Amino acid sequence: MLDITLIGTGGALPLKDRFLSSCIMKYNGANFLFDCGEGTQISLRRQKISLSRINTILITHCHADHVSGLPGLLLSMGNDMRTEPVTLIGPAGFARILHSLLIIARELPFELKVIELKHAHESFSIDGCKIDAFRVDHSISCYGYTLEIERVGKFSPEKASLNGVPMKAWGLLQKDEQVEFDGKIYTRDMAFEKARRGIKVLFCTDTRPLNVISDMAKGADLMICEGMFAEDAKVCRAEETKHMTFVEAARLAKAAMPDELWLTHFSPSLPDPHNYISVATNIFQNTVCGTDGMYKEIKFKD
Ligand SMILES: [Zn+2]
Ligand SMILES: [Zn+2]
Q: How much is the pTM?
């Protein structure tokens, strides 16, 4: 089961009741924070989410509305007695910016493991989740992410016996694709049925629409995507600032067909995005305007 909470749904500037871009996903005790705009720690506390349990922070890009909450958050995590390392992932150049921000947050009681993304597409396996980072099109280097919980197929003792897999290797194949036992190699497909549908969520903000976004959102249970501008008349403004309109985000969802689309990262000139939701639902029906604190629990389908 994966829990998702939108921590902030504002783009560029916060509003009185809307914090800046951030989202947290929790799986099996591991907490993944996506983006950390100014005030993220306040919104996390409002949602009663423990700061010290955040293991991994994934940054889309180094604009202030996505990173300026980091020093305060990390200081508070230290104050909450966290001692385990925290992994931070961001685009090339992120480490320099992080260390500059940390001039005002020195002496953290935990190690920071910083990973800079160098390629157009990179994959990681973290705390039982598959993380994919894919480059998008913004005014500076920017990445979207998917978090996926893959699920092996059901174990079949008949298949294992038929393929001569010794019983002692059955448990090992649950954990590894292939194992060596008594000098012989056994692969998972020799003892397990086809992989079952897992859980997949996409988080993508600050970009023009790209095919890679809909490609990455295919098969997703939830697609969280920016909708900086509501009216399609603002498409020129979206092009200039390298953002998207509701229509553009909904078209990407229509191409990908996730179970649901949540729009986020709303322009401060858009205090009530809900008034425009039909612009998106006319294209992709299962679209919802994100709000701070919006929560969803995704379970395995079978
Ligand atoms: Zn932004
Ligand atoms: Zn930006």
A: 0.93
